[in-house]
Amino acid sequence: MDNELFWKLLKPVHPMAAAFCRKLTGDSDDGDDLYQEALMVALRRLGSLKDHTAFRPWLIRIIISRFKNRLRSLWHRRRVSLTPAMLETATGFDPQEEFAARRLLDELLGVLSPEDRAIIVLHEIDGWSVADIAGTLGKPRGTVKTRLFRARAKMRERLERHLARCRTGQNDGGIAYALRRCKTVDG
Fold it and tell me: Which domains does the chain have, with CATH numbers?
């Protein structure tokens, strides 16, 4: 095992891989933990990597695998997320709308399998091409396109149910905040 080679290969992909983990988990602390776990596995398995130019897709596959394992574990399912009241107490401000928007995104991504969630995050959030995702996951481009289509449809269906609840007078669940953020980002 060559630690120096590992860190040399990791350096150019580190920011992207760390951000991918945070986006995949929906939380910076969980994302950092996932990234650390994936790096430990990757470091141990570096000898199995035959082509060093394939380091990035190899690492992404390890991250996705670790993410799937986390979702299967009982410990991860028993975890309790911070509530808005806990966040307000801990930080001294009220992030109610942002928390609701984050919760909505988590709900929408939650209907997806771990691999479909990874495909959506890579394509829609990180801007990867279908070809890059297909190459990384070792799947045909058509399969990735189909999975993107089906994942979007699942998310759209969940969003429509959420909107229907909002129309009945319930809280908008962060939609207003998310729309304002989109307008801010888009100009």
Answer: 1-79 (1.10.1740), 84-187 (1.10.10.10)
